[in-house]
Amino acid sequence: MSPKSIYHCIQGELADLEKSASLRTVPEVDNGADRYLRFKGEDLLNLASNDYLGLAGDSVLKEGATDAVAKYGCGAAASRLVTGNFGIYDQLEKELAEFHNREDSMVFSSGYAANLAIMDAFADKKTVVFSDKLNHASILDGIRMSGARQVRYRHNDMEHLEKRMADHADCDSRILITDTIFSMDGDLAHMEHIADLCDRYDTMLVVDEAHAEGVFGQGRGLCREMGVSDRVDLHMGAFSKGLGSMGGAVSGRRELVSYLRNRGRSFVFSTALPPAVIGASLAALRLVRSDDSRGRRLLEMSRELKLYLESLGFDCGMTQSQIIPVILGDNERTLGAQKFLLTKGLYVAAIRPPTVPPNTARLRLSMRADFTRTDIDLIRMAFEALKEEFL
Ligand code: PMP
Asked: Does residue 240 carry a catalytic annotation?
């Protein structure tokens, strides 16, 4: 294709995206991780970030970051395996492994990079990877890049999963990977059942706890909450959400983590995170370890709000977490609802296909532990008004 025809194709695709109300643009948001963000000159209650515990702006994290900058500077300047390593990186990994009661942990530049590395290291053409249909895009991309055979099962459908596993029982190498909290639905993976099936079909179990960390299981994730963490081979998590910082992490047996350090290309060939991020992550980890009340408060508040929204007639799906979807179906309707809520003081994300299945466009409410009673009242009033306008 000539550059001119590539340009033509792209123009056409962008026009199609615009026509179907699917074109994405970066919003003009400022202070996007604060409880109140700034959008087009207005201060709006932030229901769209993943800063579930409200830690991104916490003074303890800021201090961790600034201390690390003062000591080490701003950049890591090389991959961890070359010279991009500092005492606090090792300290963070040591404390993380202790936190999860695992032999070893390693930190990645993002959760996305961690998922790519896991698949890169442990899967190849001969591997079958069982994957929930609603797993995060980074998992799908990792599987695709590894060349493994992806066997998807219907979302949270354990009968379907078992059938799929039985169909592939004679394969040499099997991995199951699942989000523990599904990012666009807020529902929970059936971890006990999944662990049983992995035992029965001799399958390596990998979990993505990105949205559960800091919130469930005294901050250690859903597997801890459900008492199955010892049955998980690799625990992947992220500092970028509940822990208010940045970076992915993987914890597990020493050999597995060591193998990842050698074979995970997104780790080997990428510059390490800057010291400020590691300093903030270490501070966040210590904070959650010493006090897990934020997560519990968040879940309590989320349960109450979900029940209230349902009582108004909204469809909140199967959520049991701090992520509350309000499923409206149609793209334009969802964008209209998002705009309407702006006028009521709320900033809410509108999520459309392909991020979610066709005809399930939704508002995604991301709750925060630092919401006050007044904030919750504001949300309630805004949705009461939305009901009058939309339902
Ligand atoms: N896993 C899940 C389930 C996620 O939702 C995300 C990010 N939205 C990631 C992994 C990637 O994490 P990060 O943003 O740190 O790259």
From this structure: no
